[in-house]
Task: structure prediction
Amino acid sequence: MMFRSYLVAAIRHFSREKAYALINVIGLALGLAVFVISIQSSYVGFHYDEFHANADRLYGVVQVRPTGQEGDKPMALVPGPLAPVMRSEFPEVEDAVRFLPARRTIVRTGDKKFYEDGILYADKNFFSIFSFRLLSGEPEKVLSRPDAVVLTETAARKYFGEANPLGERLSISRERDAVVTGVVEDVPLDSSLRFDFLLPLEALPASFIEDWQSRPFSTFVLLRKGVRPERLEEKFPDFIRAHMSGSPDSPRRLFLMPLTGFFHRPGPFLSHLGWNSPTELYLALFVGFFFLAIVAINSTSLSIARSLSRTKEVGVRKVAGANRAGLVRQFIGESMFMAVVSLVLALPLFSIIQDLYVSLFGLGAKPTVTAWNSPLLVLTIIGVTLLTGVLSGLYPALYLSRLNPATVFREGLPAGRRGGRVRKILMAVQFGLSIFFILFSLAAKGQYDYFLKQDFGFNRRNVLVIPVNEEILPRLDSLRESLKVQPGILGTASASVLPIKVSAELAVIPEGLGRESALAMDVFGVDHDFIGLMGIRVEGGRSFSRDFNDEASLVINQTALKRLGWDDPLGRRLVVGETAGTVVGVVRDFQFRNMIFPTPPTVLVLRPDRSRYLFVRLDPSRPAASLMPAISAAWDAVVPNIPLESFLLEHAFADAYGDIGKASQASQAIGFGTILFSCLGMLGLVSFVLRRKTKEIGIRKTMGASAGRIFLKVMREFVLLVVLANVVTLPLAYVLLNKLIRTGYAFSTKINLAGFLLVAVLSILGVGLAILNLVLAAARQNPVHSLRYE
Result:
């Protein structure tokens, strides 16, 4: 009965204050929707790969190899024979599986042909170890024949539409035909192992799979139940001596890393599994709590502002026998009721915001865990909702419940400095948080723009990139000659790497020294024209030239020269990987890696036969789109049966740093939303204060105060709150954001003080305009009506 009474009272109160209730509910609903998105994203990010049934028993084998002066380096790539030998020699290992990604390949069927990156060679027991769900085909048989191929459902629709693909044939890189033996559900978002096509490992040459010196395979072992990884690792030293010793780069040790630890492994060491920094997840969680805190403060401010209309209700209830504890329960219950209603409204808002979030960040796959199928997440969301309701209603409840009935009936709501101080502090904190959010988004946008405008040591503008595979490589020279004669094309070059997407680190040993003196350097294979076409400046010696026999020549950058400690590098020799070469030139530092990392020491080697990308320099005076028909015609004349795929190098850089820009857009949207809700809260507070000061304003006007003077006095009181919020927030944000950017990025921009000051001015003006009408109306009010108030 008591609960029913409280519920009826809450509904009646909200029906009388529709505008207040609507603003409060919408604000809390948005806050909860953003919070649910953030907590779901963070939870998924911290629980990658846990959907596998055997996730707690799956461990990747990692070898630690010596790299000379660079110290020991872990890499989750091991020889092919390691998995079957471990399975046979170690009783602790229940099973083991290997997989290896293929290079970019053209896949064909009928008149359909596409470049594919997501091709994975895997052992036939792949589906018995990993819990990727097969939609058709038997797990034990789909990879049992050497010409088999398993497609994801998206790949199946891409090549065969809605028809049943089982038994259909695909041509993979003109080298082999494969028969579709199974269809697997699309790889979920929370999987660090990704693929679109699965081919049997037996399709690779046996000599390659059985070579102990080649280390391209990812190997995972399934430990028997109850076996601790430490128990198996104790046997690894003997295993290395028996099977992996005798080579200068034999591993110093092996260890096991849990499958669930690969996505956030300490440092992005080499592995075929995805990697990401947990910083982004903490940031997403911070954003969710941050925004929810702001709307909760806004709800509290509005509740306090509207409490004036309930003072007589409190007096009547107290006279009728209600005690303070009962009133506190009632008012907190109303606040919790509003929070629950907001959660219900947050569900469709969550769906809309999630679609925008997925579209913004290009997240095509879905996670196995969502906010609604995880009991832990559901309980967390409900708990946070109720806690938000309690906290946003706590102060109004305590404030109203302590009112004296006699004072209320005689004077209305008593003027109290403490209550006014709390309201102002809440409002200042809310504006401070909102301003910080806006400043954070501006800093992120500034860093993104800095990356795109930064001088990387080479000219990336007006360069068209065409991926090259094994089918195109034999005809690459003919293609280049055909392209050179096209109007608007200034030159061509090829390389083994694409700037910004680099993974080419090798051990480099200076002449006369042993492997213990090796340095880890980036090594890029290029052709004769690459340095000139990319505008990389030669600082000493020369570039590669067809006038010389440069097959064993090397060009290094300035950072490599510093690491080597040579005064004159020309003519000095280096052992790069397994081959030796002579340094013929030094070039200015250039950054092919992500700008998050410092410029690495780099060696350029002449390897046109290993090219994977063709770079075409376009005339900057002509739009790139206008040159594409001529480029397509030249392409079709040389390689008519292969689809042309191309993109501008500038776009590759924009995509590489796109998440920073997208995060900036999202934070700007949330920041402006927080400012909007802060202004709504300020409107509520102003309305509350003006109602309390109605008689005071009337008396001041009767005593001769002008409307303008009253207007300035009241405006000053509230604008000063925003000024105070800016004074505290601006220096704090400047220091924190500067430190965050400089810590997170090797190449970082400086915070734009002008932008910070502009935010401060706009926030003050915004508040002034938001409350202008209310204050002006109060200042102009006839003192006769003011003195009759209540």
